[in-house]
Amino acid sequence: MNKFGRLFSISIFGESHGESVGVTIDGCPAGLSLTPEDLLPDLERRKGGTQKGTTPRQESDYPIFKSGLFNGKTTGFPVTILFENNNTRSEDYNKQRSIPRPGHADWVAHQKFGGYEDYRGGGHFSARLTTGLVAAGAIARKLLEGISIRAAVTAIGGETDTEKGLQKAIEAKDSVGGIVECRVNGLPAGLGEPYFDSLESALAHLLFAIPAVRGVEFGTGFAAAAMFGIEHNDAIEDMSGKTRTNHAGGVVGGISNGNELVFRLAVKPTSSTPKEQNSLNWDTGKTENFSVKGRHDLCVALRAPVIVEAVTAIVIADFMLLEQKIKRVL
Amino acid sequence: MNKFGRLFSISIFGESHGESVGVTIDGCPAGLSLTPEDLLPDLERRKGGTQKGTTPRQESDYPIFKSGLFNGKTTGFPVTILFENNNTRSEDYNKQRSIPRPGHADWVAHQKFGGYEDYRGGGHFSARLTTGLVAAGAIARKLLEGISIRAAVTAIGGETDTEKGLQKAIEAKDSVGGIVECRVNGLPAGLGEPYFDSLESALAHLLFAIPAVRGVEFGTGFAAAAMFGIEHNDAIEDMSGKTRTNHAGGVVGGISNGNELVFRLAVKPTSSTPKEQNSLNWDTGKTENFSVKGRHDLCVALRAPVIVEAVTAIVIADFMLLEQKIKRVL
Amino acid sequence: MNKFGRLFSISIFGESHGESVGVTIDGCPAGLSLTPEDLLPDLERRKGGTQKGTTPRQESDYPIFKSGLFNGKTTGFPVTILFENNNTRSEDYNKQRSIPRPGHADWVAHQKFGGYEDYRGGGHFSARLTTGLVAAGAIARKLLEGISIRAAVTAIGGETDTEKGLQKAIEAKDSVGGIVECRVNGLPAGLGEPYFDSLESALAHLLFAIPAVRGVEFGTGFAAAAMFGIEHNDAIEDMSGKTRTNHAGGVVGGISNGNELVFRLAVKPTSSTPKEQNSLNWDTGKTENFSVKGRHDLCVALRAPVIVEAVTAIVIADFMLLEQKIKRVL
Amino acid sequence: MNKFGRLFSISIFGESHGESVGVTIDGCPAGLSLTPEDLLPDLERRKGGTQKGTTPRQESDYPIFKSGLFNGKTTGFPVTILFENNNTRSEDYNKQRSIPRPGHADWVAHQKFGGYEDYRGGGHFSARLTTGLVAAGAIARKLLEGISIRAAVTAIGGETDTEKGLQKAIEAKDSVGGIVECRVNGLPAGLGEPYFDSLESALAHLLFAIPAVRGVEFGTGFAAAAMFGIEHNDAIEDMSGKTRTNHAGGVVGGISNGNELVFRLAVKPTSSTPKEQNSLNWDTGKTENFSVKGRHDLCVALRAPVIVEAVTAIVIADFMLLEQKIKRVL
Question: What CATH number is given for C3-322 in this structure?
Answer without folding.
Answer: 3.60.150.10
